[in-house]
Structures are given as structure tokens and as C-alpha cells.
Design goal:
Blueprint: H1 4-29, H2 35-59, H3 65-93, H4 104-112, H5 119-130, H6 141-164, H7 176-195, H8 198-205, H9 208-227, H10 244-264, H11 270-277, H12 279-300, H13 307-326, H14 332-335
Helix pairs in contact: 1-2, 1-10, 1-11, 1-12, 1-13, 2-7, 2-9, 2-10, 3-4, 3-5, 3-12, 5-7, 6-7, 9-10, 12-13
Length: 338
Amino acid sequence: MRKTYIDYMKAIGALLVILAHSISTYSESFKLVPRPWGIVSNLCYAVNATIFFVIAGYLCHKQDIPGFYHKKETKILVPLISFSLLKIFYTMFLSERFAHSDSLWGMIKDAFVYGRLYWFPYTLFVIFLVSPLFWHDTKRDDKRLFLAALAMLAFAGWDEYLSLTGKENSILLLQLNNVFKYMPYFLMGTIFGHLKGDRLESFLSKHIPARLTVCGLLTVFFGYMLVRGLPAGDEVRVIWELPFHKRLLIALPLIYIIYGVSKLLPENIKWLELVGKRSLQILFFDSIFRTVLYSILTKLTEHQLWMIPVVALMSIVLTVLACEVIKRITGVRTLIGL
């Protein structure tokens, strides 16, 4: 049975991703954002991708391996290839907005060898390739749980080392730098998946308002500490400069806030469920719609801060509407993972 709050969590995660991207685009393209927007950007970046990896690990369970790989190829790899080719075409013939290289071969390597055009689905697909190693096995529950926990600590330790030595971006092949960065969160979700049941659900669901208050206070504190002492405008992505243990401390209360809010919301909020189900497509379409929307709005009026949330919300709405149209077109829907 599909759990509604999981779709809600994906929807909130998608909104935070798009909002962070909108803030970054505004800051880079027009003018530096005020400090509150910089803090919001950092907090969004601290949890927006992280929550998806935790959920992916939680939902990843023992099943037929060929069928599992086929599903991931259809839902992730095919749209990854489609949107990457679309960006390459856009860069070659329309604008250099998404260019990472001056040559066609360079753009192809960026897209499919380094995964720089769409790092998140690329990283997620690579992680899914090795995920069967940690699947639940009723005959060896403790061994698989121990293996997942050991691997989580090993990846976290390696990412900590890379961060502290300034080498966090030194392994670009196959997005391995991000695989190391987010594998601990995926395995955290996998461990929760091993432990899932009425007992875990009951524990997490107790005293949600009080826990949300505590997590909210921690988030405000961490947000302030992130940018304290920084010159205005330097705070938009400072989260990436932190070692793993500090990013984890910031992410955990935010993850619970997303969980708690999702649990408190009433069921059958259809539009929120739909956003959650289309979260991957939202991440694919965002760079396209965001570029177009900012271009249109800045031609109509002078750039202003209200554009940041408006562009983010419009990008989500346009993606959901586009998906509703495309899913009725046989063949085309497969290209975007529907």
C-alpha cells in the first residue's frame, strides 16, 4: 500500500530543490540576494537532495534483480539520456546557458561520463546499481543490517576525509564524488527500511508538534551559524564547504521537519500527491522552465525578489501540466520516465 506521506515528503523535497535553484539563478544572473534568502538557500541545499536519497533507500527492498534494473532504466536512465541530449542540442544551436565544454565530444562526456548535466538522477542511478548488496534477506537480517551500517559509516568517513582535505570534487568520474556524499543517506534509509514496522512508525509519530518545535529551533540556530561572519552575498552555497558531520547535523532536523509536516497533513491532498509522484520529472524540467521563466519575467519588468518563489512555483506547475499532457502520448511519455 502506497503511503501518502511519502509522496508529500517528495513534493516538499522537490519544492525545496526548485526554490534553491531559483535563488541561485537570481543571485548569479541579476544581483546578490539579501542574507535571509542566502540562509534559506543553504538550508534548502542541506536537505533537498538528501531527503530523496533517504526515501530511495527506505523504499528499496528485495525483489527480482533484472526486473528492478529494468524499472530503474525506464524511470531514471531513459529520461536522463533524453534530457541530457536535449540540453546538448540546446547548447549547440540555441544558447550556451548549460555549456560545460566547448566541443560536442566534451559535452557528451560531461553528460554521460561525468554526469554533470543532471547530477542527481545520475548519482541515484549509480547508487541503485549497487543497492541489491544491502537488500533485506529474512534469513540473514542481522548480517545485511550490519553490512548496511558498516558501509554507511565507511562512506561517511570517506566523505569526511575528502571534505577536510579539500578533495570533495576530486573524483568526477561517474559522479563518484556525489555517490560518496549521498550513499550514507541512502543506506540510512535502507536501515530504516530493515527496521520499518509499527514500532518504528509509532516512535517517529509520537509528539510530532513538540519535536517539530525543537527541530525548528535547531534549524534556525544552524542557519544563523552557517552565515555568521560571512560578507553579504557569499552565503548562498556555503553548505557545500562543510565536512560530512556538520552537513549531517543540519540535515537531520530538517529531514524530521519534512517527515513531521507530511504526517500531520490530511490525506488525499491530490495536487500534493501528484507533485510528489512527478518529483523526478520536476527536477529534469526545472532548468528549462526556470531559464525560460526568468527570461520572460525580466523582459516584462525589472528583476525583483518576488520572482524567486514565483519562478519556483511556476516551474513545478508547468512540469505537472506538461506531464499530464505527455503521459497520453505513447512513446514520448517513456522518454521522460512516465
